[in-house]
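User: For a teaching handout, I'd like to show students what a predicted protein-ligand complex looks like in token form. I'll give you the sequence and the SMILES for flavin-adenine dinucleotide. Please answer with just the structure.
Assistant: Understood, here is the input followed by the structure.
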Amino acid sequence: MTVHIAGAGLAGLAAALTAARAGHGVVVHEAAGLAGGRCRSFFDPTLGRVIDNGTHVVLGANRAALGFLGRIGGADAMVPAASGNLPFLDLESGATWSVDVAGRGIRTLMKAAPGAKALLDLAMAGITGLMRPGATVAAAYGHLGALYERLIEPLSTAVMNCPPEEAPASLLARVIAIRAGGGRGALAPLDARTNLAEAFVGPALGAIEALGGEVRFHDPLTAIETAGKAARAGIFRSGRAPLGPGDALILALTPWALAGLQPRGEEPPSYRARAIICAHFATEGAPEVRQAARLTGCINGMAQWFAATDGVLSVTVSAADRWMTHEVDDIAARLWRDASTAFHLPGAPIPAYRVIKERRATAEVAGGFGPRGEISKLLFAGGWTSARYPDTIEAAVASGIRAARCLETPN
Ligand SMILES: Cc1cc2nc3c(=O)[nH]c(=O)nc-3n(C[C@H](O)[C@H](O)[C@H](O)COP(=O)(O)OP(=O)(O)OC[C@H]3O[C@@H](n4cnc5c(N)ncnc54)[C@H](O)[C@@H]3O)c2cc1C
């Protein structure tokens, strides 16, 4: 029995590992020359080092992602991005505060808007969101003052990658409930010690290959052959892969990649993509950055998160659609202005940088998608397929595991 998996992003890698561990033959077909998809690392000649396409953070409550890391032997490659208190600053007023992320959920969460009332407000925010399915984050929580501005809005924008005026409160409520209620360190952010290739992608490829799985690069799926309501073969650049009894094809692709591929009888998903910008600045030798926390949140600037790693300061802007038409140099100048304010660095000259504009960083599909559709032997995975969670590493890994588990009950 062979499982073909199209796409070697984290959803495809999680599906491949789960299927291989269950004893299935596995072939992963990736269109690009490297694995990781939207979680990829590459050598950047300007900075002279391997960088990620964007800073990726997982939280202590992300059980699927952290469990996957444990299984591939990458657990130590993601490290706490804040030691207890996650620092924030207001780029306009200079005010600073922190959020206790080491403690047990929301009980010890708030220093942002201290006092029992803030805790109660946060708990109520979760309940309000769940009770008002149609409400946006801004409508449901906007009245919460400092709690909203200093925590809920930055958290919502980062996790959901869309403005709070458009983000469904029910989805954030679920994230708050799962993450904040998930025990000690549930909200603690972790990021890659070095890069995503070393944390997730390399170890996952190694684990799949150690179980006899094969990964083929530059091998896109170009069509799906069907007979009635069953898939008969996947057509890849490397050739036709027939789907015999017990075989299956898992489509671990983005909705835009799927759009041209779905066989007759399968409606293509209608989706909304959202952008993220990440600018990496060379800050070797800047003690202010070396001493900073690995992760710092900020409000009232273009920058939203600073991630300080060895010699590089990475600045993230989520929900960045409106910046996509701006020139890279303009974006770098604006973000360096924010960075120099935050870390008291000289405003000029701007150090060497690399700006990555990801126009389609995440996708939203109302109500979720898959893992099964109308056509048998076809399964769907991908961070965007979850109805319960935003398009994230957690959702991608969970979706891959979910699709692979369907192999045990073929339709
Ligand atoms: C800049 C940025 C920052 C982010 N920050 C975070 C964060 O902090 N925390 C977090 O949890 N999430 C974050 N995300 C989201 C996260 O990266 C995604 O949710 C996750 O990587 C999705 O994985 P996936 O496997 O579903 O999709 P993808 O990673 O997109 O994988 C799809 C794969 O399919 C391949 N492919 C396409 N067409 C074909 C074809 N025809 N045949 C074969 N293969 C094909 C692609 O090359 C790709 O490798 C961020 C995303 C970006 C872009």
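For the handout, you might add this sentence: The domain at 2-40+195-271+364-408 is CATH 3.50.50.60 (FAD/NAD(P)-binding domain).
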